[in-house]
Amino acid sequence: MGKKTSFQRVQPLTDATYADLDTIGRCVHFDDFEEAHKKGFLVPQPLSNSHTRLSQKVLWFAPCQPMSCHNYYGNVTFVIKWETVQQSLGPYLYLIDQAIYNSRSFTRVVFTRNRYTNLTSVDLDSNESPMIKSWKGFQHATYCMNKHRHGAHELQIGIEVNEAESRWLLQNCSPMANDHSLANTPFTGNHLRKSGANYKYESYRKLKFYRGCTYRLINNLQRLELKSLEQRRLRGQIIETFKYLNGLNNVTLEGLFERDGNVRTRNNGQKLLLRNFKTSQAMNFFPVKIAVTWNQLPENIVSAGTVNTFKNRLDKFWITNPPVLNPTNHVPNSLRLMYD
């Protein structure tokens, strides 16, 4: 939110629609991510743009959106279960303020250990509240009637923390990379941050995606030990393949994979057969993509006794041997039998 955001006293929501509050995330840019890891804790900030005063600084979180969606707020999201936060921090939830526009609105609440007599507690039993609690668990308002029409509603949770709690949050959050490409500003120069610090702004290098330079983001993800969306997807597919080949799931997909009986060539002992196909689209089929990656894994990984052992060995192997994110480029030309 910018400095010109006009916050007001929290009003009841009208015709609110709710969604489950499972995980929350704190979106930051790469420089904030690096600063957090250098200091060893998530860096909190004073409550701004508000007449409310709190005893301590806060870390802003919000309900997580799918990682496949575009994220305008930052390159990296620190993700944590809301239930985990509840058990270790809190337990008080207070309303802070609200901003309502024509078709969009925001409500800010604070989750704290401190008791405030000057703040209103969040009514978790009211259908006009930004947060409710039912037999399903916690839920948050996603849509409501705004100034002129129905539109999106966003809940922002400020967690009041001291330094020890900030360190705990960093240790228990999982960092995830975001698609931040549409929020990019193609400009390089000196910028002044809200904190007053002067820093070198290079949108394509550290802070944001830059069209045509997405490889720079991938390099930053590897350097900061983050997995890109493509690598996380490939890892999940490889794990499911291991389960399928070893009969560890209840899915019956007869003929999905076929083991290669050729023992004359050096392989991992569980090589999958690469079949001939007639169209270029077939290169994107799951069995084709996964077979290429699977056949490149060493024997001690594919012969693992348990799923956890397989995951651990796979992750260690990929640290020194990063996976090919488009494995179909390595399909032999002899298998690409395309018709005109």
Describe the overall structure.
The chain is α+β, with helices and mostly antiparallel strands. It contains nine helices and twelve strands. Strands 1, 2, 3, 4, 5, 6, 7, 8, 9 and 10 form a ten-stranded mixed sheet that branches. Strand 11 and strand 12 form a beta hairpin. The longest helix is centred in the last third of the chain and has 17 residues.
Give helix and strand order, one letter per element, not per position: EEHEEHEEEEEHEEEHHHHHH
Basic shape: elongated
Q: Tell me about the biggest sheet?
A: 10 strands, mixed
- Distance between termini? 54 Å
Beta strands, count: 12
* Mean pLDDT figure: 76
Q: What percent of residues are in strands?
A: 15-25%
Portion in helices: 25-40%
**Radius of gyration based on Cα positions:** 24 Å
The helix count comes to: 9
Structural class: alpha+beta
Unreliable segments (pLDDT under 50, ≥5 consecutive)? 200-218, 330-340
Task: Walk me through the topology.
Blueprint: E1 17-20, E2 23-28, H1 30-39, E3 58-63, E4 76-81, H2 82-88, E5 92-100, E6 104-112, E7 131-134, E8 137-145, E9 150-160, H3 163-172, E10 174-177, E11 188-192, E12 198-202, H4 203-207, H5 214-223, H6 229-245, H7 286-295, H8 299-302, H9 307-320
Parallel strand pairs: 6-9
Antiparallel strand pairs: 1-8, 2-3, 2-4, 3-9, 4-10, 5-6, 7-8, 8-9, 11-12
Helix pairs in contact: 6-7
